[in-house]
Amino acid sequence: MLKSVAKNFSILTLATITEAVIIFLFLAFVARQFGPSLFGKYILIGVYVHVVSVLVNAGIAPIALRELARHRDDSSELFDDLFSLRLVLGVFGYLTLMLGATWLAESPEYMTLIGIAGLMLIIDPFTASYSAYYTAHERMAIPSAYNVASAGLSALAGGTLLIIGFGLFELILSNAVITLTIGIIWSVRFRARVLRFRFRVRFAAWRRLLVLIIPFAPIHASNQINRVLNVFLLSQIKGPLPMEQSVGY
Q1: 9 vs 1, 15, 67, 88, 178, CA distance in Å?
Q2: DSSP assignment of 121-166, as one string?
Q3: pLDDT for 167-176, tens place per residue?
């Protein structure tokens, strides 16, 4: 037992550090290539998506992990319910994101970029569900490998596009394509080797899960949104610098 915990902890720690280093170096490169204004636009789009993602997914992760761990021997039906709830919330989050961007009177260019970046809200329910399942079964190597691969491929593709002269649209599109590709590959392998899950509309099961999730949601949301609140406020509060430039700095 102790050996398994130590192994999984080591894998998770190494993967988290590797992913963080990749993201840091990539963002530093993007900032250098774009300059403050364009980099600020790139970061702001990411913040919009992140805030909505946090709000619609707040509290789900700990409950999903706990319930799957408690029902490891017979988790097929529970997995279907968790996945279906996540997917419904993801679609709702995507629609909310687009309505919010419209309400904030963003330009057509922004709307297009936000629409592409926001596709992760629909893709994440798949990969997040797989990660929760493997974590509940103490198999951290698989989700860790996929997360590092996704970060590495996104950084490699994005960096290559910027070097050869492409811009913000192509960067965001490449991130979405890689995220979708990773999600499809993982889905095919998961369904073939682990569970042949399916989307099911079961309101009673969703209600039961939401009752468990709601107490965790405010804490999770406040911790996550606090990290990006300054970026969002800089985009809304008028000042001496243009909005994108202030966010970039």
Answers
A1: 12, 10, 20, 31, 27
A2: HHHHHHHHHHHHHHHHTT-THHHHHHHHHHHHHHHHHHHHHHHTT-
A3: 889 999 999 9
User: Residue 208 and residue 165: Cα distance in Å, rounded?
Assistant: 51
Integer Cα distance of 26 and 155 in angstroms: 6
Interatomic CA distance for residues 71 and 19, integer angstroms: 30
Residue 175, CA atoms < 13 Å, CB-side half-sphere: 23
pLDDT above 70 (res 2): no
Integer angstrom CA distances of residue 118 from 1, 65, 144, 193 = 40, 25, 23, 29
CB contact at 8 A, 7 and 133: no
What is the band of 235 on the pLDDT scale with cuts at 50, 70, 90?
A: low
In whole angstroms, give the CA distance from residue 126 to residue 77: 16
Q: Nearest-CA neighbor of 174 among 185, 159, 196?
A: 159
pTM of the model: 0.86
